[in-house]
Specification:
615 residues; alpha/beta; FAD/NAD(P)-binding domain; seven-stranded antiparallel sheet; five-stranded parallel sheet; 28 strands; 30% helix; 19% strand
């Protein structure tokens, strides 16, 4: 049976072969298949859970996080990080049809318009805010909140920035937890205005996070359910799940390497899948550089050490890794408040939550952590601290000598209103490092750095590390984010200083009615030592916010703006091969990256169609 499925797929005459049926891959596949004359094949390493029992961990919004560490997760780990006290961090990535859009926390927001204009300023024409906005909107089917909802929860929006005809359902959640009633007033009192719409190209302010949820079904809306499922009947769209791509294959034409397909393993059987026009790599920021290197595209030294024949030397493959860093401060709250921890740990409450969801799509499983604020440094630090950080950032930019870092340094200018630090408040203990006391309840203040100087890498291991004659897809990539190292030392300073404001939010009226007192990190009895507590806290407890980008960055073939793909996402040095996913982002954005990945995929699909007809 398995052999028949593989033989059938291998016998197809495919115009485009898409590697990775995740967030971006299914967008590209769906859009290309709108033309019945184009044949598309998608290879996905994980299973499909569409219409299958047990998919509640993915579909039910309030059960976010349960799929992390499950069979649907690649379960990657970073190398021990010197900047984090030698800790190795788990790096969840989706191993399921729909990719990480099936595992994430359904957050839907965009960066500041300057984030995308910076991409264009690095030489990537057509990638500025005005160019991307139509593709952001193309992906969305926004469901506006009612007038009553807007009044009760301050769920405002601006119509022209929200798409209404796209496949992906986006909405303000039906109901919020008890802490949200105090969020806007608390931030407003601290000088942070409420944003009318977080999708309008300005990422500063307090708002309610829009989520990728179908409001009618109260289910997660993700690339498999929103893009693929409604068009699964198309006879020109073929998907093979549980199929692991081992390498991309090339032929040489007129001294140019042309991508022709991929070598695939399915149920223990290996075969070759051909593509008549293009191979499109959508494996994500971890595995897209891994597959390029395994296929002979990358840094010559790394490839030779892995026993891989070099086809194209490009030292940028796997470099430029950027991630959002996160900390979680814990506060004790009233024992009368119901938290998500109570539901997860109490069988009676969990059964009640399940029943409410199953019978009326209400209750705790429809609630999401949506109390959000993005703050500029000038809003949370003194003018002296901002000036000191700006001077340090300028020194880093001069020393590194890359335009990317000069752009980051400009964001420290006094009055430059970019949301450099994100705060999210929610009931429950979100920290993997804090051990709760029996009988007590907690809330969490999350803090995330948006524009990091820390630059890391993702590469295949050497054959010596993998103890074999040649590194293969079976050897997990080496993920080395280099948090807080080198130029990233400034990231640690920003994070530590920003913790003061996180604590101030929780100590301010009216939110302090819920957040009774900080327990992690424990408060200092000596106010002068609070800064040292924050320094230690950031070093010892920073985690990933699960937003890796940049490892196959857009840029020129060589020079200070060099990258892996050009502005049409074609891989430098070869023909008929593109990369379409978060790895092409040359600089991080001030937002959860899901919406940006969808926009990238929508724009890429349009470019591929245009090129298809221009041939």
């Amino acid at each position: 049976m398995a052999n028949e499925a593989l033989q059938h797929f291998a016998a197809l005459s495919l115009d485009y072969l898409i590697i990775g049926g995740g967030t971006a891959g299914l967008v590209v596949a769906t859009r290309l298949s709108e033309n019945p004359e184009i044949n598309i094949g998608v290879l996905e390493a994980g299973p499909s859970v569409l219409n299958k029992n047990g998919n509640e961990v993915i579909n039910v919004p309030g059960r976010y996080g349960e799929s992390i560490g499950s069979e649907y997760d690649w379960k990657f780990q970073t190398t021990p990080q010197k900047g984090l006290g030698g800790r190795s961090l788990p790096w969840p990535r989706g191993r399921v049809l729909g990719g990480t859009s099936a595992l994430n926390f359904m957050a839907w927001n965009r960066g500041h318009r300057e984030d995308y204009d910076a991409w264009e300023n690095l030489g990537n024409r057509g990638w500025g805010w005005d160019d991307l906005l139509p593709f952001f909107r193309r992906s969305e089917n926004f469901h506006p909140p009612s007038a009553a909802h807007q009044e009760k929860y301050q769920s405002s929006y601006v119509s022209k920035f929200n798409g209404t005809g796209g496949p992906l359902h986006t909405t303000h959640v039906k109901q919020y937890g008890p802490a949200h009633q105090y969020w806007h007033e608390t931030l407003n009192r601290l000088g942070i205005s409420s944003s009318h719409d977080s999708l309008a190209g300005v990422n500063v302010g307090a708002w309610n996070m829009v989520c990728t949820i179908d409001p009618d079904r109260q289910e997660r809306s993700y690339s498999a359910s929103a893009y693929y499922s409604p068009v699964a009947h198309r006879t020109n769209l073929h998907i093979l799940t549980n199929a692991t791509v081992m390498e991309i294959l090339f032929d040489s034409e007129n001294e140019i390497m042309v991508a022709t397909g991929a070598r695939v393993r399915y149920d223990g059987i290996e075969t070759i899948i051909h593509a008549n026009k293009e191979v499109i790599l959508c494996a994500g920021s971890v595995q897209s550089p891994q597959l390029l290197e395994l296929s002979g595209i990358g840094n010559q030294d790394i490839l030779e050490a892995a026993g891989v024949k070099v086809k194209v030397h490009n030292p940028n493959v796997g470099e430029n890794l950027q991630d959002h860093m996160m900390t979680a401060m814990i506060y004790e709250i009233s024992p009368t408040l119901l938290t998500r921890d109570d539901i997860l740990n109490d069988p009676v409450r969990r059964q009640a939550a399940d029943l409410a969801y199953q019978t009326s799509q209400t209750g705790p499983w429809t609630e999401m952590p949506c109390s959000v604020a993005y703050c500029s440094l000038s809003q949370i630090l003194s003018s002296e601290e901002c000036a000191e950080l700006h001077a340090r950032a300028q020194d880093i930019a001069r020393q590194v000598g890359r335009p990317h870092d000069a752009i980051l340094a400009n964001q420290f200018e006094q009055g430059h209103e970019l949301g450099q630090v994100e705060y999210i408040f929610d009931l429950g203990n979100w920290s993997p490092y804090f051990v709760p006391e029996p009988g007590k309840k907690y809330a969490t203040m999350l803090q995330m750095l948006q524009y990091p100087f820390s630059r890391g890498s993702i590469h295949i291991p050497s054959k010596a590390e993998s103890n074999c004659e040649k590194t293969t897809i079976n050897d997990k990539p080496v993920i080395h984010p280099r948090y807080y190292l080198g130029p990233g030392e400034i990231d640690k300073k920003v994070m530590a200083k920003a913790q003061r404001f996180a604590d101030r939010i929780c100590q301010s009226d009216p939110l302090c009615k819920i957040a009774r007192g900080r327990v992690f990190p424990p408060p200092s009895r000596d106010s002068d030592s609070e800064d040292s507590i924050y320094d230690d806290f950031v070093s010892n407890y920073t985690a990933t916010d699960w937003h890796p980008v940049g490892t196959c960055a857009m840029g020129e073939r060589s020079g200070p703006n060099a990258g892996v793909v050009n502005e049409r996402l074609q891989v430098h040095g070869v023909s008929s091969l593109r990369v379409v996913d978060a790895s092409i982002m040359p600089l991080q954005v001030g937002a959860h990256i899901q919406a940006t990945v969808y926009a990238i995929a929508e724009k890429a699909a349009q470019m591929i169609v245009d090129d298809h007809y221009a041939r």
